[in-house]
Every structure is written in C-alpha cells, then in structure tokens.
Amino acid sequence: MRSLLARLLSIKGYQVFEADHGDTAVEIASRQPLDLILLDFLLPGENGHSVCRRIKSMAIGKSVPVIFLTGMVNDKDIANGFAAGGIDCVMKPFEPQALLERVQAHLQAAANDRTPESLTTGAIGNAS
Fold first, then answer.
1. Which are the contacts of 89, defined by CB distance < 8 A and separation ≥ 6?
2. Which of 59, 64, 89, 114 could form a disulfide with 68 if both were Cys (CB 3.0 to 4.6 A apart)?
3. Which of the four CATH numbers 2.40.110.10, 3.40.50.970, 1.10.3260.10, 3.40.50.2300 does domain 2-124 have?
C-alpha cells in the first residue's frame, strides 16, 4: 500500500519520503521540512497516534497537517487520531482520486497559512 501511494503521489508531482516504521518517520520529519504527512494508524512497533504526537512535539512538525489512513472503523481510534494532532482520516480502501483531492485541499489550506514553498508529502505507513 505504501509504495503504491508513493507512486501515485510522485506521478502527480509531489516529492515523497517513505518510512516503514515509526522511528524512521520521526527521523525524517525531524530533518526534512514536510508540507503534509500521510500516516497509517497501524505501524510496526508503534501506533500512528504515538508517531503523530512525537512529530507534533517537534518545532518542525507542529504545523504539518497529518492525514491518517486506516482500515479500522473504530470511532475511539479515529478520535484518538484527531486528539494526537491529525486533521483528517481516510478509510482504506480508498478511491485514489478522492485521496489526491483531500491531499490537495489540505496542502492548499496549509499553504494559505504560510509563505509559498515547494510542496513535499511524506507517505508513512505499513507495507500492507
């Protein structure tokens, strides 16, 4: 799923950074300014909520929009994602065009809040 999503975003012109583990995601976010993060709830070793909190606790990650991807339909988990700092939640399986439109909408909203810069997207999730 992660590599398919990365390919879809790359084809649309986004620069994509991939991580297959929470620690790797936090490392990327700590050294690379990102404009948006796609984050799976289920990650090896650490859940997406925790990873989101770690990224949001860093100065470089505070204003980065996080869209959660999930196959879980549990309202509590979704609420925890928003409490952790997520701005949206996309259920898997998803329609690629609909996801792209959500990504663009959140990037545009974030860009309106800061000076123009090149847009990058972090695709972070498990390999399933």
1. 67, 68, 69, 70, 78, 81, 82
2. 89
3. 3.40.50.2300
